[in-house]
Amino acid sequence: MLLSCYSNMGKAERFATLESRVCEEHPMDVTPVVQVSARVGWIIEISQQDDGYRCWVINRELDVLSDGYVYATSSAALAAGRLFVERAA
């Protein structure tokens, strides 16, 4: 299940926080984005960490969602993001 990290912030504050890639509930270091995919109303972002890849999903309201898993490949992380978006639509 994906968790919303920014649900209690205003849109401008969420956007500024998104740029700095900081999440209060799930702290993370700044990580490079290796892949971005877009669907109507959604952005799926894959970031690379030392131990694998993490999936981030951004909706129209700029809520940033993550399932918290670290995937072995960027393809697996992207598949998880796509599956969430398909089920949420």
Give the strand content: 25-35%
Distance between the termini: 15 Å
Low-pLDDT runs = 1-28
* Class by SSE composition: alpha+beta
Number of domains: 1
Global geometry:
globular
Please, how many helices?
A: 2
Largest sheet: 5 strands, antiparallel
- Give Rg in angstroms: 12 Å
Percent helix: 25-40%
Number of strands: 5
Strand order, biggest sheet? 1-5-4-3-2
Main attributes of the structure:
alpha+beta, 89 residues, 5-stranded antiparallel sheet, 31% strand, disordered N terminus, 28% helix, globular
How would you sum up this structure, described in words?
This protein is an alpha+beta fold. The protein has one domain (3-88). The protein contains 2 helices and 5 strands. It has helices at 11-20, 74-88, and strands at residues 3-4, 33-39, 42-49, 52-59, 64-66. The chain has a 5-stranded antiparallel β-sheet with strand order 1-5-4-3-2, covered by helices on one side. The longest helix has 15 residues, at 74-88. The chain starts with a strand and ends with a helix. 25% of the residues are buried. Mean pLDDT is 76; it is low at 1-28.
What is this structure's SSE topology?
Layout: E1 3-4, H1 11-20, E2 33-39, E3 42-49, E4 52-59, E5 64-66, H2 74-88
